[in-house]
Amino acid sequence: LYFGKLDSTIHLGLFAYGVRMRHHEFIPAINSLSKAALGYSEKGDLKNALALNLKVELLYRQNKQPLFAAKIQNNIGSIFEKNGQLDEAKKWYEKSAKGTKENNDLEGYITATGNLAIIERKQGNNSKAEKILLDLIPFTEKNGRPEQLSQIYQALGVVYREMKNTPKGLECYLKSRKIY
């Protein structure tokens, strides 16, 4: 983001996109458009953020950049989640998890899968969320960052709290705090 100035980030991202497209610099152009989308998202303008992210995701796929597309799919899921469209969010998080794993972005896979578990919990599927998170713990211990593992334990603690299992919820919270 441009020195914390969201309007400047949006303007410069859109401007750079146009310039780079005219010079046939397609991937840098798409990256610039992605920055503008991030600016809209940070500004809270989810309508424009969604529109640009959908365009960016399509352009990455058209330009054979599946990993970048998978990362943007996670952003799209987040926007749908913020809008309360949980079924759409789930669809995009699933795509992102699949794409990041296929392209060996293990941290991206952990993030998208953790987001998917949160959607399951929000939809009242606590057992499914629990399973996703429990399966994700050993994977994250091996492939992720400590803060990701901490976040998984936090999310699992919330699941246990909602399942009325306070001791397990507290245990997860304490593990989370110990890690990060």
Describe the structure.
The two termini are 26 Å apart. The longest helix has 18 residues, at 26-43. By secondary structure, the protein is mostly helical. 84% of the residues lie in helices and 0% in strands. The mean pLDDT is 95. It is elongated, with a radius of gyration of 18 Å. The chain has 9 helices and no strands. Helix 3 runs antiparallel to helix 4 (66-82).
Helix content: over 70%
Largest sheet entry: none
Enumerate the spans where pLDDT stays under 50 for 5 or more consecutive residues. none
Structural class: mainly alpha
- The number of distinct helices, counting runs of at least 4 residues, comes to 9
Name the helix and strand elements from N-terminus to C-terminus, one letter apiece: HHHHHHHHH
Rg over alpha carbons: 18 Å
Strand content: under 5%
Distance between termini? Answer: 26 Å
Q: Give a count of the beta strands, DSSP E runs of length 2 or more.
A: 0
Mean pLDDT: 95
Shape: elongated
What's the short version?
The chain is mainly alpha-helical.
Characteristic terms for this protein:
180 residues; mainly alpha; 84% helix
Helix and strand arrangement:
Layout: H1 6-22, H2 26-43, H3 46-62, H4 66-82, H5 86-102, H6 106-122, H7 126-143, H8 146-162, H9 166-179
Helix pairs in contact: 1-2, 2-3, 3-4, 4-5, 4-6, 5-6, 6-7, 6-8, 7-8, 8-9
